[in-house]
Design goal:
By secondary structure, this protein is of the alpha+beta class. The protein has four helices and 19 strands.
């Protein structure tokens, strides 16, 4: 019950903050009310002056500043059906802050952004309200240069560095906090786009073995029927050499060290090159003025069927834990204060469908099946309140059912996990 009291206090505090000026005005005498009005006018004038100065800086330096601040209250209910295991409910406050700048230099443009988050943890830009109120780490979130030669009509783009993820994706392929490092070539003609990327995963300093990397190819197009209706199609391919070496290369492991408890790549040395195909269909339309976007995203790790049985050296293709699935709908859009938007989706990640490291989003999407829903409301222009809810089931290798780690083939070692986030987001 504690988390519900905390959640109630959180909402009550937000409502008080939003209504405080009106309440104060009603309870003050006319002189006090006028004083407050004058003070608020001074604040608004100062804010306007500050905005004007920032605009002048942008004009003079030709810089474009952007960023956001997010406050989050999270609570988790996670029960286990494993004998002797008890996982208590938890709740915590978190925050994220990001600030970036962009500048054009003719055919070149540069992008730079810093963000909060744990050092050397690309999966989360959050900091938690704890640890004796120490100052948080500030990390390099993006640092990239893009070259778009005007002589080619803007149809070719080259980007290198630590970049905002250029791939078309959902949470079954990429954690949205990860900003990959490497290079991109993109060819485009209207809605037709072809992308080729090289992302470095591990740089082998000793050079006794080749660097570990990932290559991606994506081809997508959109077919427009009218101003509100369009069908998007994307096909892609992902290649990672020597997937086995990634299990032991990093202490944290691109695949959670391949342990049974964490799931993912448990191959006893037989998982070599990683070949994953993907396809995505999107359908945008309007229903009584409400914009809708349906998304179906399917992945297949073509090498994901090299699964062991109960002991090393025993293999079978009977179980093929290699597929990823996302199906969802986005409703509405936030353009100004008072607007609503929402998302409803279901998803599934088999243990070998994608490297766990790449799909470990804030709620934890590694080897899991989940249902997701969110509702966003525009409090003010560029200020939003968002409530998100997940129901998550942990999915392990199918063969582990015989070892008592699953409730059944393809099942889970735990009951459903409920995760709720309440976010207040300010964009600037």
């Amino acid at each position: 019950m504690k988390r519900f009291w905390l959640f109630g206090l959180f909402l009550a505090g937000a409502l008080v903050a939003l209504n405080a000026p009106a309440f104060a005005k009603d309870t003050m005498d006319s002189q006090d009310s006028q004083d407050m009005t004058d003070a608020m006018d001074d604040v608004n004038s100062a804010l306007g002056s500050m905005s004007s100065r920032v605009s002048n800086i942008e004009d003079q330096l030709k810089l474009k500043f952007y960023g956001d601040v997010r406050l989050r209250y999270a609570f988790i209910t996670q029960n286990s059906n494993l004998a002797g295991v008890t996982i208590l409910d938890s709740s915590r406050g978190r925050y994220r802050a990001r600030l970036g700048a962009m500048k054009d230099f003719g055919d070149f443009s540069a992008n730079f952004r810093i963000a909060t988050g744990a050092n050397n943890n690309p999966n989360s830009e959050n900091n938690t309200f704890d640890n004796a109120m120490v100052n948080p780490t500030i990390d390099i979130d993006t640092a990239s240069i893009t070259y778009t030669p005007a002589a080619l009509g803007g149809h070719v783009k080259f980007t290198a560095g630590k970049m905002a993820n250029p791939l078309t994706k959902t949470s079954i392929t990429w954690d949205p906090d990860i900003q990959p490092e490497g290079a991109l070539v993109e060819l485009s003609n209207n809605d037709l786009k072809f992308r080729a990327t090289y992302f470095e995963l591990v740089n082998e300093a000793a050079k006794t073995t080749p660097d570990q990397f990932m290559d991606n190819l994506q081809l997508e197009d959109a077919f427009k029927f009218d101003t509100d209706t369009a069908l998007g199609v994307m096909v892609g391919y992902e290649y990672i050499p020597n997937g086995t070496s990634l299990i032991t290369t990093l202490a944290t492991g691109l695949s959670n060290n391949g342990t049974t408890a964490d799931g993912n790549v448990l191959d006893h040395g037989l998982l070599h090159d990683w070949h994953m195909g993907e396809a995505m269909l999107t359908f945008k339309h309007s229903l009584s003025g409400l914009p809708l976007k349906w998304t179906l995203h399917v992945t297949d790790n073509l090498t994901g069927s090299n699964l062991p049985l109960a002991a090393a050296g025993q293999y079978s293709s009977k179980f093929t834990n290699q597929y990823g699935l996302w199906f969802g709908v986005d409703l509405g859009a936030i353009k100004s204060a008072g607007d609503f938007a929402g998302t409803l989706a279901v998803a599934s990640l088999d243990p070998n469908s994608q490297l766990a490291y790449l799909t470990d989003d804030d709620p934890g999407f590694t080897n899991r099946q989940y249902a997701f829903g969110s509702l966003t409301y525009g409090l003010q222009d560029k200020v939003q309140l968002k409530i998100s809810q997940w129901l998550v089931g942990h999915e392990y290798y199918a063969y582990l059912a015989a070892l008592g780690n699953n409730s059944g083939p393809g099942g889970s070692g735990r009951n459903l996990e409920s995760i709720t986030y309440v976010d207040c987001i300010a964009n600037f």
